[in-house]
Design goal:
This protein is mainly β. The protein has one domain: Porin (Beta Barrel). The protein is globular and about 50 Å long.
């Protein structure tokens, strides 16, 4: 069918999480410590359902385990070079439940540059609300790409400036 993208539509996922370890030894010491372990005790269940059309989507997820859970809904809206994401959720562990909220906007004026801002809030004590701005440069966007991300986090009890330099290959 012309005009229909195979990546568009409803998607539903159910995952059973089992803890385990697979080591790939890269040094002599790692060869001695390498292991393949698998634990048959179920760690939890993860359920996700979302609807996607092009780069916009809406969905929900839920993680359930003994005494703890995590759930949320998220929407992503794309219009040209602008993306907006809104997420609402909760986390529960040890009898404590906290709410979570995030709203992020990103503008990509050039293929090598983006600028964004995000508002985060968690209802946990002393976590408060954070406002985060970032700029992202990447060059030359070939098989090997150098990426620089600068981020400013502002929170009532904690301010931070972060810089990340990475090589994508």
């Amino acid at each position: 069918m012309q005009g229909v993208n195979a990546a568009d539509g409803w998607f539903n996922i159910a995952s059973l999480a089992f803890p385990g370890e697979l080591s790939i030894p890269l040094t002599n010491e790692a060869r001695d410590e390498a292991s393949f372990e698998f634990d048959s005790d179920l760690k939890g269940v993860f359920l996700e359902s979302f609807y996607r059309k092009a780069l916009s989507s809406v969905g929900a997820h839920l993680f359930l385990d003994d005494g703890r859970s995590l759930g949320g809904i998220i929407g992503v809206y794309n219009r040209g070079r602008w993306f907006s994401r809104l997420g609402l959720g909760y986390g529960r562990a040890g009898g404590n439940t906290n709410g979570r909220f995030t709203w992020e906007n990103e503008f990509i004026p050039f293929d090598f540059f983006s600028i964004g801002a995000r508002l985060d809030h968690q209802t946990e004590v002393d976590n408060g609300t954070s406002f985060v701005t970032n700029v992202n440069f990447q060059w030359p966007r070939t098989l090997w790409t150098l990426r620089l991300v600068l981020e400013q986090r502002i929170r009532s009890n904690n301010h931070a400036t972060l810089a990340e330099l990475s090589l994508v290959f």
